[in-house]
Amino acid sequence: MAGQGSAGNVLAALASFFIPGLGQLLQGRIIMAAFMFVAAAMLWIFFLGWVIHLWSVIDAARFKGR
Hints:
66 residues, single chain, 4 helices
């Protein structure tokens, strides 16, 4: 991906909006994607999943590749 604000990051942020971790998966960050998905799933039980969901979107949008 090109960097913060690139079209790829916008697409990743939109993907994470629908499914937490999907944006990170699109960026090739498998471990972070799994963490976001599992954390959001666990926290939705306590109605706090929106916190991880929002973090997932912001993280995908702000990611800077190597």
